[in-house]
Write a structure and sequence with these properties.
By secondary structure, the protein is of the alpha+beta class. The protein has 9 helices and 11 strands. The strands form 3 sheets. Strands 1-8-3-6 form a 4-stranded antiparallel beta sheet. Strands 2-7-4-5 form a 4-stranded antiparallel beta sheet, covered by helices on one side. It has a 3-stranded antiparallel beta sheet with strand order 9-11-10, covered by helices on one side.
């Protein structure tokens, strides 16, 4: 049985959905209270430690998820076993592709993550019943397409310094969605190792380390314990990224 909080703003909404970022800014924002209650009946909220595989490449898709916290790493595997990191997902991104019975990417928890998962059949049924949900999903996928195109420009045309700044800027802007776009600074742990960052950006590990050290020396970022970064001025980082 799902307990709901009755107030003027969230009457009838399941408690687990009230403070969920995906309900306010993600795909579940298209659902009314009754539909949220219906979906919650088959919803599972769970955590996964960094390094755990969430979706396997070429595996049958049984469930979709909303990312509630943490960072998810998406990779593509070639026929000879080589892998390429092709993207990162943050809260409240939707993990999965509706109407696809088999995955084409692997998804791994880059950091400790929290997910809200639900059966593929339940979501696809609601998509047919609720056009606004389909619209939300389309908006997110188009946003991901725009981000992929921007990243193609970053990889193809930007300098090593701009690539590193762009990577850090992406994390700074997405790591805490509840903070809002108007925030000036950000603090976060790097979700990828320097070797993974090098792989993602098409650089060497030495270049990644050198450019992070350079940004640190210029006061654009502060680094604590090797992986914890503090950005006091996101606008300054954006300028270094060429944005």
């Amino acid at each position: 049985m799902f307990i709901v909080r009755e107030d003027i703003h969230t009457a009838g909404v399941p408690v687990l959905c009230v403070s969920c970022e995906a309900r306010h800014r993600g795909i579940c924002g298209a659902l009314n209270a009754g539909q949220l209650v219906d979906l919650a009946k088959s919803t599972k909220r769970h955590k996964a430690e960094a390094g755990k595989e969430l979706v396997g490449d070429s595996r049958s898709v049984e469930r979709f998820s909303n990312v509630l916290s943490g960072v998810v790493k998406l990779t593509k595997t070639l026929s000879d076993g080589r892998q390429q990191i092709v993207g990162l997902q943050f809260a409240p991104d939707f993990l999965g592709r509706p109407f696809q019975s088999e995955s084409t990417l692997s998804a791994e928890a880059a950091t400790d993550v929290e997910l809200c998962s639900f059966p593929r059949q339940a979501l696809e049924r609601m998509i047919k019943e609720q056009p606004d949900l389909e619209h939300r999903l389309l908006e997110q996928k188009l946003r991901e397409l725009d981000q992929a195109r921007d990243w193609m420009v970053a990889l193809g045309r930007k300098t090593a310094s701009e690539k590193i700044a762009s990577f850090l800027l992406m994390i700074a802007r997405n790591i805490a969605p509840a903070a809002g776009p108007e925030r000036r600074g950000a603090a976060f742990d790097l979700p990828l190792s320097r070797a993974e960052i090098a792989d993602f950006l098409g650089l060497t590990v030495e270049t990644v380390s050198r450019q992070i050290t350079r940004l640190r020396g210029e006061g654009v970022i502060r680094v604590e314990n090797n992986r914890h970064l503090i950005v006091d001025d996101i606008g300054r980082l954006a300028a270094r990224a060429g944005d």
